[in-house]
Amino acid sequence: MLEISKNEVLDSLRAENPWWELGRIDRRYEALPRRAYFDSFFGLLVERSIRRAVVLMGPRRVGKTVMMQQAIGRLIRDGVPAASILYVSVDTPTYSGMGLERLLRLFLDANALGRDDECFVLFDEVQYLKDWETHLKALVDKYPMANFVASGSSAAALARASKESGAGRFTDFHLPPLTFAEYLAFMECERSLVSRQGEEYVSNDIAALNREFINYINYGGYPEAVFSDLARDNPARYVKSDIIEKVLLRDLPSLYGISDVQELNRLFTSIAYNTGNAVSLEKLSQSSGVSKPTISRYLDYLEAAFLIVRVRRVDEKANTFAREREFKVYLTNPSMRAALFRPVTEDSENVGSVVETALFSQWFHSDGFANLHYARWKRGRGKGDGEVDMVYVDPAHLAPLWAVEAKWSDRFHDHPRELDGLVEFARRNDLEEVRATTRTKQGFTRVDDIGITHTPAALYCYLIGKNTVAARTGRTS
Questions:
Q1: Positive or negative CA dihedral for 192, 443, 391, 342?
Q2: Which among 341, 195, 208, 356 is positioned nearest to 272, based on CA atoms?
Q3: pTM surpassing 0.85?
Q4: Cβ-based neighbours of 54, under 8 Å, separated by 6 or more
Q5: Which residues have C-beta within 8 Å of that of residue 297, sequence separation ≥ 6?
Q6: How far apart, in Å, are the Cα atoms of 112 and each of 105, 108, 109, 138, 432?
Q7: Cα–Cα distance between 358 and 221 in angstroms, integer?
C-alpha cells in the first residue's frame, strides 16, 4: 500500500503557506474587511509574556480562517519573517495520521529554524485530530519561542478538550456570527443609516435600516454570504448544505457516535421552526418524534456545536425554577431559519419570533449571556400568563437590572398600557424604566409610575451588537 511521502507533505505545506515564497498572503484575504474582533485576537496571538496557545472556536463560516490569514498578513507587515509563520489546515487528506509535532518539525527543518527561534504556528480545523489538546499542550511546553493557535468549528470538542487538558496552557477565543453592527459596516452603510446624538443612537432612515435588518436576518450572519451574490441569492443552498448539514451529518455524528442522524435532523428542524418560542422536553418529543432522554442529550450536542442556545425561565420576581420544565430555544444565527424554510419579509406572519432571535443572537458571545432570561408567571384564573421576553439578572444580587419586550409593531408605542406584563414585572422588581422594541417608532411613554423607552427593533439590535463587541474588545464608539 502506497504511503504519502515527505516531499508530498512539504509540497502541501508550501501550497498552504505561499508567503514563504511571495512574502505576502493571498490578496483575496487582504481585500476582505476585518471582523471587529481582529485586534483582540491578534493581541493574543503575539502575546509572549504568558505561554499560552489561543484556541479559536466558533460556528462554521463565521470567518475564523480568514481572520487567521489576515493575522498572518499583519505579522508580515509588522516585520515578522514570512518563513517563520506556519499555517496548517489539519483536516487536509495529505496530513492524515500525522501528529502536530511532525508537521511542526517538517516546517522548522524546511525553513532552517530551530527550537529556540521565534515562530508563529496556526493549526486550523484541529478538532478532527485525535488527542490534539494533549499534543498541543506538549508543544507549548517544548517550544517556548513559538506562538500557537488552534482553530476549529466544532466547539463541543474544542471547548471540552481545552478545559480538560489545556488548563493553564490555552486561552479560548470565541468568534460569533456577524453582529448586525458588523453587517452594516461590511455593507458600508452603517454611517448613512445610524448616527449618534450625544449618548443616543438614532436611525437616519428607519425604512432603509429595516430593509437591511431583514436582509441581515435572512443571510447576514455569515461574512461570506454578505460578499457572495450566489450565497445571498440562494441562502438555502449555501447555509443549509454547507453549514447546517455538515454539522448535523458530519461533525456531531463523528464526535459523539450518533447513529440516527435523521432523528437529530428532525429535532433541529423542529427547533429552528419554533425559534424564540417556549418549549419543553414533552413538546419537543411530540413534535419531533424523539424520546425525551435522547432530546436532552441532543440539545447538549446542538448547543455545544453553536447551533442553538437555551434560555432559562424566571418568575415574576426573577427567581429561577428548581425544576426546569420549560425553556426557550433560539438559533444562534437567524439566517439558519431562512435557509431551512424560506426568507422572511417585514410582513411575514412569523417575523416577530425571528426578530426576537436576532436580538438574542447579539448576546450569545457576550460574557453576560448566562444572566439573560425570559420571565413567565401565572396571574390567576382568567387573566392569562404574564411574560417578558428579555430579563437581565444581576448575578451578585439575583435581582433584575433591566427588562425588554421584543415587538415588531408600532402599536405598543401608541398603546403602552397593552404592555401589561412588562409593566407588572417592572413594578414587582422596582424597575423605574423598561424598554419595548417597535417596528419604526422611537420615543418614551409612561404607564403610571413606569417609564417605557420605545426603540425600533433594528436599531436596538444594532445597539446590542455594538455594545457587546465593545465590551469584549475594549473598543468605544
A1: negative
A2: 341
A3: yes
A4: 41, 44, 45, 148, 149, 150, 170, 171, 173
A5: none
A6: 10, 6, 5, 22, 67
A7: 9
> Of 132, 30, 128, 148, whose CA–CA distance to 85 is shortest?
148
Listing DSSP states for 149-206 in one string gives: EEEES-HHHHHHHHHHH-TTTEEEEE--SPPHHHHHHHTT-HHHHEEEETTEEEES-H
Four-residue CA torsion sign, 150, 151, 157, 159? positive
Using alpha carbons only, what angle is made at residue 131 by residues 128 and 133, rounded to the nearest 5 degrees?
95
CA distance 279 to 302: 16
Q: What is the DSSP string of 354-373?
A: HHHHHHHHTTTTSTTGGGEE
How far apart (Å, rounded) are the C-alpha atoms in residues 113 and 108? 5
262-285 per-residue burial string, b: 16 or more CB within 10 A, e: under 16: ebbebbbbbbbebbbebbebeebb
Beta bridge partners of 391: 373, 403
* Alpha helices per DSSP H over 289-401: 292-304, 335-340, 351-361
Mean pLDDT by 10 residues, the chain (477 residues): 83 97 96 95 94 90 95 98 98 90 96 95 89 91 96 63 62 93 96 91 97 95 84 75 77 79 89 93 86 90 88 95 89 92 94 97 87 93 88 94 98 98 98 98 97 98 94 68
Query: Which one, of 367, 389, 384, lies nearest residue 437 by Cα?
Result: 389
CA dihedral 198, 407, 180, 366 (to 10 degrees): 90
Are 321 and 315 in contact by the 8 Å Cβ rule? The answer is: yes
Query: What is the rounded end-to-end Cα distance, in angstroms, of the chain?
Result: 60
Q: In 3D, which of 92, 97, 168 has the Cα closest to residue 125?
A: 92
Residues 280, 341: contact at Cβ < 8 Å?
no
Domain ranges in the chain are 6-174, 180-473
Record the cell numbers describing residue 70, joined without a space. 489576515
Integer Cα distance of 303 and 370 in angstroms: 13
Whole-angstrom distance, CA of residue 129 vs CA of residue 118: 25
Per the listing, cell 436596538 goes with 460
HEC states along 43-108? HHHHCCCCCCEEEEECCCCCCHHHHHHHHHHHHHHCCCCHHHEEEEECCCHHHCCCCHHHHHHHHH
3-state class (DSSP) for residue 273: helix
* Total residue length of the chain: 477
CATH class of 6-174: alpha beta
Give me the helix-helix angle, 292-304 and 155-165, nearest 10°: 80
In whole angstroms, give the CA distance from residue 97 to residue 90. Answer: 10
Q: 143-158 as b/e, with b when 16 or more CB fall inside 10 Å?
A: beebbbbbbbbbbbbb
